Amino acid sequence: MDRAEQRARLITARDAGRVGCRSCGLVAPLGQRRCTRCGAALQSRDTQSLQKVWAWWMAGLITYIPANIYPMLRSTELFRTTESTIVGGVVDLIHYGDYAVAAIVFVASIVIPIGKFGAIAWLALILGRPHAQDTHRLHRVYEVVEFIGRWSMIDVFVVAILSALVQFETFATINPGIAAISFAVSVIFTMLSAQSFDSRLIWDRLKEGTPA
Amino acid sequence: MYQVDDEIAVRDTRCIRCGHRLTFGRRGAIARVVGLAMTSAILMGLAMFLPFLNLTSGRNTVSASLVEVVGGFADGLMVPLAFAVFGFILVLPLTRFVLLIFALGPVAAARPAFPGAALALRWAIVLKPWAMAEVFMIGVAVALIKLSGLATIGMGSAFWVLCAVVLITAYQETFMCRHTLWTELNSARA
């Protein structure tokens, strides 16, 4: 039996009038409120999933704006204060020739957050109505987005360590700017947005006749 | 929906539709998860107070522990940021280890599970994406390179201990087979 045939024969818990627990995987009768094994709330489909996704997404986007406009770091060296934003920090690193580190910071603080906003919006738009997309690809995008979000926190931790270490110095100090907080909050919001997806929607909203 | 027989559960199985790993095919998963969680928890306790980084500029050398590193910038507006960083890199990873030990420790020792064990295991799984010790270590590396021009920085013992915690946790995750953990916890409760 090949994979396509196996997939066609697959019976989901919902088809069988049951609900699977998303926490421990145990199957319960449809309509049961809580899982008897792990105590998690059971819901065959989260009907408000996309609303939650969009709400967290917008909150994340709003806090991402000040994170880029305001300084991430303020460093004072002998009475001279310089402020650098996220992009400014990357430019500085390139300037000093640290290309590898510049690439890490660029990917973690610019590519991943913007890519995440795009990917979540794309998924949420497609899943809002019946679709004929490749379910495998949608699911892959969903998994990548969910996995990768936390790595954006790198820059926040960098700022934290820099400011903590350098303040022991007498001539120079580094302080986190307001953007550090907005960036951290933005990462948290987009992680919540990705977690709000009910991934089962990917298969539910398939147009009739499209292979799963 | 799958019927997972004992015979199948010793192998690595995946959902045919989404590729979610149903079983990991790991024997003795519970004992290993508990053992590794205990190791990590003890190391984490050490890592908090041992010197994390040493900074030398001119004749001055200062060393800062993780608690000092995070507490260092906790004034005014930055207090919430300090709390968040402290939570992500120390409190949440440590909480996960304690929850896992609490939930699965008695099962590993062939005793009845504590009341609330299911809740503890569920939360240990929920908290996983929020425990960011490994992300923090990459951040430390980036910060060290940024500072390399300014001062000489040495890694303290806590730095290496935290590296070990990150590796042990990654190894522990390969044993976090939900099917095995939940079935065995359930039979220990009954």
Describe this structure in words.
The complex is a heterodimer of chains A (about 210) and B (about 190). Chain A is mostly helical and about 210 residues long. Chain A has two domains: about 45 residues; about 160 residues, Up-down Bundle (Butyryl-CoA Dehydrogenase, subunit A, domain 3). Chain A has eight helices and five strands; from the N terminus they run H-E-E-H-E-E-H-H-H-H-E-H-H. Chain A is elongated, with a radius of gyration of 22 Å. The mean pLDDT of chain A is about 80. With about 190 residues, chain B is α+β, with helices and mostly antiparallel strands. Chain B has eight helices and five strands. At the A-B interface, helix 1, helix 4, helix 5, helix 6 and strand 5 of A face strand 3, helix 3, helix 4, helix 5 and helix 6 of B.
Q: How would you summarize the topology of this molecule?
A:
The complex is a heterodimer of chains A (212) and B (190).
Chain A: H1 3-9, E1 18-20, E2 27-29, H2 49-69, E3 73-77, E4 80-84, H3 86-95, H4 99-127, H5 135-148, H6 154-166, E5 172-176, H7 178-195, H8 201-204
Antiparallel strand pairs in A: 1-2, 3-4, 3-5
Helix pairs in contact in A: 2-4, 2-7, 3-4, 4-5, 4-7
Chain B: H1 6-9, E1 12-14, E2 21-24, H2 29-49, E3 51-57, E4 60-65, H3 66-71, H4 79-108, H5 117-126, H6 133-147, E5 152-155, H7 157-173, H8 178-189
Q: Span from first to last CA of chain A?
A: 16 Å
Overall shape of chain B: it is elongated
Radius of gyration of chain B: 20 Å
Report the helical percentage of chain B.
Answer: 55-70%
Topology, number of strands of chain B: 5
Number of domains of chain B: 1
Instruction: Briefly note the structural class of the backbone of chain A.
Output: mainly alpha
Strand content range of chain A:
5-15%
Order of helices and strands of chain B: HEEHEEHHHHEHH
Low-confidence stretches of chain A: none
| CATH topology-level name of the largest domain in chain A | Butyryl-CoA Dehydrogenase, subunit A, domain 3
Rg of chain A to the nearest angstrom? 22 Å
Strand order of the largest sheet of chain A: 4-3-5
Mean pLDDT of chain B: 80
Biggest sheet: strand arrangement of chain B: 4-3-5
User: Per CATH, which architecture of the largest domain in chain A?
Assistant: Up-down Bundle
Low-confidence stretches of chain B: none
User: What's the total helix number of chain A?
Assistant: 8
Order of helices and strands of chain A: HEEHEEHHHHEHH
- The quaternary organization reads as heterodimer
Q: How does the overall form of chain A come out from the CA principal axes?
A: elongated
